[in-house]
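We store chain and fold; thus.
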Amino acid sequence: MNLDTISHVVGLKSPEQVDGLLKPLRSVLNVGKENKLVTPLHASFPDFMLSEDRSKDLCCERGRRHAEMAKVSLELISKAKPQFNICGLPSSHLLDSEVEDLDVRISNSIAKGLPYAYQHWPTHLGFAGHQDKFVGLVHDFFSSRLLLWMEIMNLTKQIHYGTAMIQSVKKWCSEQKAPEGLIKLVHDASQFVTVYANHPVSLSTPHIYVSMLPFWPPCRPVSAAYMPRTIGVIEPKGTAIARRRLALIATWKVSTWLIKSICLSADGRRLVAPTENSIEVYDTSTGESISSLTIERATGVHSVTISPDGTQVAFAKYRTAYIWNVGNQDTTADPFPNLTLSINYIAFSPDGSRVACGTDDGDVHIHALHADATSVSPLKGHTKEVTSIAFSPGGLHLASASWDKTVRVWDVQTGQTVGEPFKEHTSYVFSVRYSPDGSRLASASLDHSIQVRDVISGAKAPKPLTIHTPDPASIAFSPSGAFIASGSGDKAIRVYDARTGQIVLGPLEGHTDKANSVIFSPDSARLYSCSRDGTVRIWDVQDLGAAHTLPIVPALSSAVYCIRYSHTGQRLVSGSEDETLHVWNVKTGELVMEPLRGHQETVLSVDYSHSNAYIASSSLDGTLRIWDALSGEDIHGPIKGHSAAVPCVRLSPDNSCIASGSSDGTVRIWDVTSGQQIVELFRAQEFHVITSVDFSPNEQQLAFSYGHDSDLGNSEGPVDGAIRVVDRFTGDTVVGPIDAHGFISSIEFSSDGMRLVSGSYDKPVRIWDVQTGKQLVACGEDDGGTHGDDSDSNDDRAHGNYVFSVAFSPNGRYVASGSFDETMCIWDAENGNLMFGPLKAHTSPVYCVKFSPDSSHVASCSEDGTIRFWSLASCEASVQDSMLTASDGGQQLAPNLERQTGSGSWSLDGVGWVVLHGHRVVWVPSDLRPRLTHPPEEFMIADRGCLILNLDGLDVGDKWQDCYRPSHDAFT
């Protein structure tokens, strides 16, 4: 400490008084000339003072003095003025770096002794031992002073050390057997500080109150302690809040390049990750890089591993591997010379005596690092590239996984295979891991499964684990062996019970690209993951065994291919990749009945009867089904006749029959009452598929689209697509075939039956005259069609990829379209002008769009497993708001998520800030962003729920100082 700090902590009048009191001790103490720092001249002086045998009555009793310092520090914190917004920050819209006089504010507002007290009271507490008086003081700190402490720690750029400091208090609470309530409060505070410190929200200190606190789960101790003291802060609404399992506690953006591999030291204190131009060693408590290797050979590294003693890091780059001595920065020559193909994975043996790698040519190589170990190379057996290797805990065996769909086990001493290869997987195997006790071997494959085997007998566990996600990239056992974590191509992290295969946590969302690697911390409290998005994320998995961590069974767990409103507009039916139908209440987003099960493949099309009595569905399994819309009964069972998938089905307006179109090239009519085929209305030429059907409102005609099946997915060159309108009863052609300029994906009649809209793989949405077959409008394309006076508005704002679905609004004013480019557009049906959009909220292709019967809303569904509901009134208001913002010279802060044409009501930038009129209003946690409804979207249906934000009436910006009162009874 310096003289100034001592004077404030001890309670003396001035630094000069402290200096005077220390003068008799100048023979053993030094006071710096510039910084006035007080230090012992020799280590023998503190040794003497702390030794009771030597210093006798002058002895400085360590525990007692630490207790006094802890007490003084906590009292200083409790007496700090003011207890909220201590530096008078003017606006929550500003980042701390944007506050012009911040340094002056900090200097003038934070008393000299406070930084010492804030930083060191946990250390003093830890050495003070058990004293009952501290239980009350510690509880007071965490229940009343935590947020102020975070303010000062953040403003003085010390917040990253906050987690370690609170962890030391957690340890003290445990050792002193503190009350359970205090232990839970301290644990929650640790989570709260960690999340804040490791995300962009920490760039703005006011958002401790404006963002962090309102989004903290209301059932948690920190929320219970501090939320009653707030007013005018955001109130997150929606089912996502109740369904949220707060797991993501830290996000480190460590690279602009993809990260394929990370490794953790045996004590869990260091994490190694390759970046675009270096290899970094990070302190896991702060996220700070403590060592870097920046030489040329450390660029472009795709696999890393750390030695058991933490002194060496082995890494692989293309055909070459190196070993880095972390202490002296030396790198040794390649332990695997003369390789001809790339190294995919590298690993140290448990005792550090060997390093092994797997290569593209299917070989495994083991190199001895110690004189008493043996090199064995190459180990041959795999027929395709080796993707992953793992030493057994005892170091006697090595397992390898390969693209040849097998897992092999090798004897490390002899290089011979142990037993037969495991061949259960039906696709590439990407990851292999031993359980900590070495008794089991787990492997993950592109066949969407994790297989767990008994290593000794080779028998599979009674129930293999199955992951219903694409491309599982990495797996890891927990230190106890009770759980297995997986990182997958769908960006999510999941944790399974290693014995039963039951999912116990997840999917954990946060990564924005493929999750390449997962590792448990040695204490099983945390899970680390890395991704192609360039981040390392840390997840709280401490309470995996607790019942409350079991996931809510999702209602939508896979891609949604089709939707349809009931004709009352009160319900909506959806069909999914998981072979089920769901019926929803469109006001609440809740399920009306249990999922409808029967189809054996993806449900491709659904429809409601005009009487609302029936629901029709068709599937990739080649069948149709008719369901009772009230009870969910499958009335006839599978209706068979088509010889291929059935992409489209429609119920007639008189409720008497169903039209279906199939990939077998036929259009068929079925009787609703009997489920029997009435007639095959049309058969296309060989290799043609029917893609869409629709009855005319007058019930007399049926329109359908078809094309050559080789054109699916073909975006270049000529394509064959046509539309026909035929007599519903005779099949005679009324209009067509209409050459529709590409493979037609979707068609629909207007409510008056005079027009037909089509969507195709050539991107434009086209509107046709049903009587003449002539094109009236080409939305989003200036091709000489009718566009009205604003034809140039239909160029760069059109869809950027295939149009999968189109729909006419019942009032005839609008046409909606959904695309592979993940957006939806709403067009003027008269002139083809783009009215609203592209509307981007979905994170995967939009498969279907439908208007509500009153034309007030549009629903869209997507491969991302969500159904979103958009308000046309909000769309119109957003456009008006955009025009007002533009006229005022307003500008967005680099939004990367478009909501509608122009700036719209608000936008979400790339790191989670909600931006309104150019100002940061609130920061949204990354796990909630996929559930956030986007204006003009009203709400969504998703397995993890939806999040709705109301930005009206908030005490933010220059009013943020009104949002919090430090005293308990502030707003009572």
Notes: Residues 249-549 form a domain with the Methylamine Dehydrogenase; Chain H fold (CATH 2.130.10.10). Confidence is low (pLDDT under 50) at residues 547-553, 711-719, 783-796, 889-904.
